[in-house]
Structure formats: structure tokens, C-alpha cells
């Protein structure tokens, strides 16, 4: 099988109907903030326990098609000595890896940032492939403020995303491109739609310019939302309409799939908005979720770091994944859901 066919096969597995992708790619520091929610120290042992309980949860493969990992978890084993990527692969879940190295201030553009991480990327990809990774993620940050974002910021981040995608595909790894429009702020849903549309249009123009294979690529996108400080918060139907309008204006139909980040929304709100999008029926692209906090938070609240809570916490994890999987098809109902808040 040639490289392109393998990329398409991976995309098809990741976008399997009724399944989503867990974004467990927090840095060790951010994982520590998750653990702080249940008063656990940020130790390697606690991070390993947290992630092992997620990845090894019985039945999780029914609702998850992929998991994005951080470098340290890619290299971590279970208590029984099995590498985390092997645990996932054995369940039919595609292992993925976050490869960007975070953001730096964009010189000359106050309030804007550019994502780093191209140096040595091919060598890292080859190692990650050997460790089991078959897809990757690179995140760009788009801020809405007075005069922001500038086209210059959108353009330089699009070039970085395109170069990352080129290298990933050459190494047999599906690139997930994530231009995250930040939820924080007092902007309206109209402003969010305008910015998200512009960011995606520039991104896909750049990807095509650099001859990235769109069929072997997945877009990880924000939903179109009014800023969290805006008093006029969007209803799920408004979010769905604005988001799908944006995609139809910006995303070529040959793109392999679209997944949503939860982006600071509460677990329940992210599920309700996803459900409204699912109710709009089939789209030119397969669409699902790639949530982090929205799935992990209910699990953590149930677990509390106590071994005796493990079984119940994993049931909560499966429930959160099931609710979001139902939402991708517009079949989520509040009456089914006694956990998400």
C-alpha cells in the first residue's frame, strides 16, 4: 500500500461514524492543572495513572476512534509494562501525537503569536511513527480583539501549518491542522464567524498552494461562538448555523474530515452545540468531536484519584463519550444525560 493510500485509510478510521477523538495531549504542566482539580500532586505517577485509566477503560473503543497524546505519554507504559500507543492500537484506536512546540510572540504584531516546532520535525515524525503514531496535531492561535487578527498573523501561521502538513504526509502521518479561534473575549458571534471564515480561507488557500493532499488531512476547528465575556451568548442553533455557514464558505469538500475542539466551553454546552450541528444532517465532510476537558473533567470529578472510584469513573468516561457520539448524529437528549454539566 502506498503512502497516500495509508493516509486515506487512517483518515477513514479516525472519522468512523459515531466515534470521536480524545485530545489527551496536555503538556505535563497542563495535565498537572487537571490533577489539581481533584487535589492530586503533579507527579509522573499521577499523570500515568490518569492517562492509563483513560486509555485502558473497558469499551472505550466503541466511542473513540483516536487519541492525541503528548510526547511524555507517547513514551509511557501501563503498570503492566505495555506502551500506551500499543494499548490504543490493540483496541483499534488510532494513536496521535501533538508536535507543535507552543507559541511565541509574533514580532511587530502586539497581541499576536506564531506557533513554533518545525526544526527537527521530520526526525521527530519518524521516531513517533516507530512508536505507533499515525496522525499528528499542530495548533495555531487566533485572537479576536480590536484590529485582530491581522491577515499577516493568519498567513504566517497558515504557512507553518502547511509546512508541518507536508512533512507529516511524507512520513506517513495524517496531519490534523488546528487554527483555534480563542473563545475568550467580548466579541459577538458575527465577529467570530467573520474571523473564523477568514482564518480558514487563508489556511486552505495556503495548503493548496503548497500542494498538501487535502484528502489525507483533518481540520480541527473551533465552533463559531460569541466570546465568553459577551452577554449575548449564542444558542446551539445559532452556533450550528454560523459554524456550518463558515465551513461551506471556507473548507474544500475533499478535506478528509472535520473535528471540533471544545475550546473552553462547559462539557454540557459543547455537547449541546455539537448536537445542534449533528441535527443539520449530513455534510460534505464527516464531522465529529476532538474534546479534552469536556470528556476528561467528568471523569476526573468521579475518580478523585482514589482507586476505589476507578470503575465508576470509567463508566462516567464512557457516558461522556457516548453522549458526544450521539450528538454527532443529532441524537443527544438531555433526558439521557445525568452527568454532563
Description:
The protein has 341 residues and is an alpha/beta fold. The protein has twelve helices and ten strands. The strands form two sheets. An eight-stranded parallel beta sheet has the order 1-2-3-6-7-8-9-10. Helix 10 (267-279) packs across helix 11 (293-303).
- Mean pLDDT across the residues is 96
User: Which strand order does the major sheet show?
Assistant: 1-2-3-6-7-8-9-10
* Percent of residues in helices: 40-55%
Structural class by sheet pairing and helices = alpha/beta
Can you write the helix and strand succession as a string?
Answer: HEHHEHHEEEHEHEHEHEHEHH
- What is the overall number of helices? 12
List unreliable stretches of 5+ residues. none
Strand content: 5-15%
Largest sheet: 8 strands, parallel
Give the end-to-end Cα distance, rounded to a whole number of Å: 45 Å
Number of strands: 10
- What's the gyration radius in Å? 19 Å
Principal-axis shape equals globular
Keywords:
single chain; 341 residues; alpha/beta; 8-stranded parallel β-sheet; two-stranded antiparallel sheet; 12 helices; 10 strands
Task: Set down the secondary structure blueprint.
Elements: H1 3-14, E1 20-24, H2 28-36, H3 44-55, E2 64-69, H4 71-74, H5 84-90, E3 94-98, E4 103-105, E5 113-115, H6 121-131, E6 135-142, H7 151-170, E7 174-181, H8 189-209, E8 218-221, H9 236-250, E9 257-260, H10 267-279, E10 287-289, H11 293-303, H12 310-328
Parallel strand pairs: 1-2, 2-3, 3-6, 6-7, 7-8, 8-9, 9-10
Antiparallel strand pairs: 4-5
Helix pairs in contact: 2-3, 7-8, 8-9, 9-10, 10-11, 10-12, 11-12
